[in-house]
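Saturday, quiet lab. Running sequence design on the structure tokens for the scaffold JK sent over.
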């Protein structure tokens, strides 16, 4: 009998060098926050991702094409939906942003989050 071997991927420490970037001007509402991304894991299909994201103070428009679970590990942000419902997010807050969500993300104090994303290919 043949057994396929599958191993665990530890994600305690980021495995890759961080990617630093700035948002496109058309998304920006306030500021020009530098954002940093540490990717810990991407599956073979390129649809499932785990990592850490950090952003400096600023505000921008968001439109989610993916499903994302987040846990704020540091900082303060406010996510506001299209209807104007604002949710303040601080250290320890866990939440899911569903595919199709539109609104704004505002970083009040530099924010870091651990995320898990699933983006089904079309």
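Result came back. Writing it out in full:
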């Amino acid at each position: 009998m043949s057994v396929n071997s599958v191993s665990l991927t530890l994600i305690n420490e980021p495995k890759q060098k961080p990617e630093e970037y700035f948002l496109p001007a058309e998304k920006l509402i306030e500021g020009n926050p530098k954002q940093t991304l540490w990717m810990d894991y991407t599956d073979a299909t390129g649809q499932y991702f785990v990592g850490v994201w950090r952003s400096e103070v600023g505000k921008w428009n968001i439109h989610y094409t993916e499903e994302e679970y987040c846990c704020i590990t540091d900082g303060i942000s406010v996510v506001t939906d299209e209807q104007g419902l604002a949710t303040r997010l601080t250290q320890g807050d866990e939440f899911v942003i569903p595919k199709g969500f539109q609104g704004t993300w505002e970083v009040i104090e530099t924010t870091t989050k651990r995320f898990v994303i699933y983006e089904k290919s079309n």
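Notes for JK: The chain has a mean pLDDT of 92. The chain has one domain: 19-118. Ask whether to fix the surface positions before the next round.
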